[in-house]
Amino acid sequence: MGFADATQFWNERFDKQEFIFGKEPNEYLVEQASHYLKPNSSVLCIADGEGRNGVWLAKEGMRVTGFDVSDIALAKANQLAADNEVNIQYSLCDTDGFNWQANTYDAVVGIFIQFADPEMRARIFQQVHQTLKSDGLFILQGYTPKQLEYKTGGPSLVEHLYTEEMICELSQDFEVLELQCYEKELSEGARHTGISALLGMVAKKRA
């Protein structure tokens, strides 16, 4: 899917009054950021959508950069940031269009970035590794293939879902600090509601 097609696809999803994934941050991100990140850390949010995660991080004192392919989502994200009196540097682009500057961020956050097919996913892991500082952290949450049974959110294509083996293979240049598959009730707006099959990872770029 090219940039224009992706923009159209996601704009159609986000073009609603309500926040389709809610305004509250992802639970796994809150747990891990509270444990691993310090105020004033520089954090990049991949495909931050309507801003729920980036705004929470900024309210916690982080310096947040984010991007998304949907200008409608980013308009909502910028409004959410303004409502919460925080400032986030947002760019309208996809993962391949973002400027992945080397050794720039203390952490990169990827929450349900499962629009990525296997080739794009491998590129994202390389791009994240490149843009993290030494000892920088990659916090990732996604759905596992069992999610196809629950149908409570996420893509319908199994190749877009995460297994532990796949994530371990993609993370060979990182030190994996935490990797778990688990099931939990989610309540993240209309799009992520109900029992969900999840994977969470925190990995560190080796110094």
Q: Can you lay out the helices and strands and say which pair or pack?
A:
Blueprint: H1 3-14, H2 27-36, E1 42-45, H3 52-59, E2 63-68, H4 71-83, E3 89-92, E4 105-111, H5 118-131, E5 132-143, H6 147-150, H7 164-170, E6 174-188, E7 192-205
Parallel strand pairs: 1-2, 1-4, 2-3, 4-5
Antiparallel strand pairs: 5-7, 6-7
Multimeric status of the protein: single chain
* Structure classification: alpha/beta
> How many strand segments?
7
Shape: globular
Low-confidence stretches: none
- Return the domain count: 1
CATH superfamily: Vaccinia Virus protein VP39
- Report the portion of residues in β strands: 25-35%
Estimated radius of gyration: 16 Å
CATH class descriptor: Alpha Beta
Strand-and-helix sequence, N→C?
HHEHEHEEHEHHEE
Q: What is the annotated CATH architecture?
A: 3-Layer(aba) Sandwich
| Euclidean distance between termini CA atoms | 35 Å
Helical percent range?
25-40%
Enumerate how many helices there are, as a single number: 7
What's the story with the biggest beta sheet? 7 strands, mixed
Would you give the CATH topology?
Rossmann fold
- Averaged pLDDT: 96
* Main sheet: strand order: 3-2-1-4-5-7-6
Structure keywords:
207 residues; alpha/beta; 7-stranded mixed β-sheet; 7 helices; Rossmann fold
Note down, in words, how this protein is organized.
This protein is α/β, with parallel strands linked by helices and 207 residues long. The longest helix has 14 residues, at 118-131. It has a single domain (3-205), classed as 3-Layer(aba) Sandwich (Rossmann fold), CATH 3.40.50. It has 7 helices and 7 strands; from the N terminus they run ααβαβαββαβααββ. A 7-stranded mixed sheet has the order 3-2-1-4-5-7-6.
